Request: fold
Amino acid sequence: MKTIKLAVLLALFASTACLSGCMDVADKRTPEQWLSLSAAGLAATDKYSFSGTTSIIGADGWSYSPLRFSGEVVDHEQVKSYAATAADQSESAAPAELLKEIQQATNKVSIQTAATAEGHIVLHAAVDKGEAKKRWEKRLTAEMAALASQAPAKEGALRQEWLRTYEKSHQELKQMLSTLEVDGQYELTIDRSKLVPLQLQEQTTFAYQKQGKRITEKRTTNISLSAFDGTTSP
Reply:
């Protein structure tokens, strides 16, 4: 009986020591390491679901109704995606890609101690402004180019008017992009043990010149991730 009790006590001690040691290692990770590990953890996850909303506040205080989107990733491929409109499908892109972009473009990462709950860790990431501008230039230019394919096929007054409106919008976009400044801030909640992100919040501010006036717009996106039913690669 004493031998059994001793074995149990030794096993408990070893388990506690290991847990303590693992916690010490985790606590010594840098913010950059947490971000890198969470990006790798999500990329290696076979299956998960996500959902979120995006809101935009314009220069005069007007705002769009929040766009809602959701999706499912299976075997590392996005198999389902739902958004408010077909034009907004880009909002429901796989979070793993977004997290990878953030990791590559981040200028500064810090741990939000006050926001971190037990079992979680919360990071604040500030994206390099130059990289953020490149990302949005590429995205907005691609969206404008995609609109060109929607021109009326039949020659006539309607097509000509559509093309004039499109060209005017295209020139306005080029002017906006030439003066565009982007400030991207992200807050990432990570599961400490599974090393996968549970929530991603984005706050992006756009500033540009239009007709001699400085215009500011704000974009907020909240993404929640769940149903991590797959396995991760070693």
Observations:
- Residues 1-23 have pLDDT under 50 and may be disordered.
- The beta strands are 47-57, 67-74, 77-83, 106-111, 120-127, 181-191, 196-210, 213-226.
- The two ends are 40 Å apart (CA to CA).
- Residues 30-58+69-126+180-226 form one domain.
